[in-house]
């Protein structure tokens, strides 16, 4: 397994995804590619009595901020002795993500899964679900653990 792709969403779950990626990378002497997809951002347009919600491309500031966070993650992996790089995609769907992962010739995908309701999965879907259904290599899903009060 030459390349491991850690698919992160910059949530607190990303820390555990990267911990798992680091463990596997050290065990198999693999490179880790930290991959993040920046989604379109919702925007509300006020048209008097009517509001509409649309989606717009993320700002350059958001892209730069997210990229800086990704570089911090890579620095932590590097300090742990893991060769790691960053890839950031903008508004990519699952097909685009899988094409990128395929071009990297990944031997393993590691991603996090947030608990959502059945209705959420029905209406919105999940990147984790879609990757699991269509991935060309093994996928390790890191679940978000429930917070205890």
Give a description of the structure:
The chain has helices at 13-28, 60-79, 94-103, 118-123, 127-134; strands at residues 3-8, 31-38, 41-47, 50-56, 84-90, 108-113, 139-143. The radius of gyration is 17 Å and the shape is globular. The strands form 2 sheets. Strands 5-2-1-6-7 form a 5-stranded parallel β-sheet, sandwiched between helices. Strands 3-4 form a two-stranded antiparallel sheet. The longest helix has 20 residues, at 60-79. Mean pLDDT is 84; it is low at 120-125. The chain is of the alpha/beta class.
Please describe the structure with a list of short key phrases separated by commas or semicolons.
7 strands; alpha/beta; five-stranded parallel β-sheet; two-stranded antiparallel sheet; Rossmann fold; 149 residues; 31% strand
Fold topology:
Layout: E1 3-8, H1 13-28, E2 31-38, E3 41-47, E4 50-56, H2 60-79, E5 84-90, H3 94-103, E6 108-113, H4 118-123, H5 127-134, E7 139-143
Parallel strand pairs: 1-2, 1-6, 2-5, 6-7
Antiparallel strand pairs: 3-4
The arrangement of helices and strands along the chain is EHEEEHEHEHHE
Binned strand content = 25-35%
Query: Judging from the principal axes of the Cα atoms, what is the shape?
Result: globular
What is the CATH top level name?
A: Alpha Beta
The overall average pLDDT, rounded, is 84
Give a count of the beta strands, DSSP E runs of length 2 or more: 7
Distance between the termini: 40 Å
Helical content (DSSP H or I, runs of 4+): 40-55%
Secondary structure class reads alpha/beta
Radius of gyration: 17 Å
Number of structurally distinct domains: 1
Give the low-pLDDT segments: 120-125
Our count of helices gives 5
- Major pleated sheet: 5 strands, parallel
Query: Assembly state here?
Result: single chain
What is the CATH architecture annotation?
Answer: 3-Layer(aba) Sandwich
CATH topology: Rossmann fold
Strand order of the largest sheet: 5-2-1-6-7
CATH superfamily: HUPs
